[in-house]
Amino acid sequence: MCRMLGATSVARLPESYFYGPMVADWMRGIDLTATGTETPAEIFSAVRDLGTAGTGVFGIRMQRGSFAHFREQARTLYTDAQTDRALYQAAFGDVLSTHLTRRGRFEHAICWVMASQTGLWHRFADGTEFERLTEPALPAFDADEIAAQMARLSSLDAEWDHWFAAEAITPHRIAYEDLARDPLGELGAVLDALGLDCTIAENIAPITARLANSTSREWSVRFRAARRKNIGAALPNGS
Hints:
This protein is mainly alpha-helical. 51% of the residues lie in helices and 8% in strands. The chain is built from ten helices and five strands. The strands form two sheets. Strands 3-2-5 form a three-stranded antiparallel beta sheet. A two-stranded parallel sheet has the order 1-4. Helix 6 (105-118) packs across helix 7 (143-166). The longest helix is centred in the middle third of the chain and has 24 residues, at 143-166.
């Protein structure tokens, strides 16, 4: 979705400008060398310029794990903001919150475990590699790790839902399954929510492809079987 938005030329590619727990990480994210003297005001200004790039629409991708550090730094600038929602508006103007999640929690967990093991996180639509973080490695089925990631992902989604409710924000929601099935339709819906011409989506080609393959499908079957076995073993005789 982020790449397709960037390809429209009317909305900037949303990036994780505030990813990581250190300001130095932020500086690398905006292609600036950290000297230790940068102020939060300078960083936020650079992010706004880069995140808009002449389109008039600022785009940012926010990970739940790095949100607390972003909020802490933003509050040093926008001291009058009494809520997170007001903080966002002070930093970036009117905000459309878009929440992308996945209905199939354990399929998401399987993909996460497989990507972390193989090092491949994204693939272009033509099948070539787009984002690889480590040298290629073979994946190994690990039911405990899949279960742990399911719990982590569920917790992160719950945190976002709690935050939206607390801040009285109704986000534009996107399900990964719908995005994979109809990427241009989902893109058009986001453009429409932004007040932009949704027909622009008709001329945008999907940029990335799903990573799910026969191995992930096999893992899905094995994980379900392992869970059924564990649940059965936990029941007393005669249950």
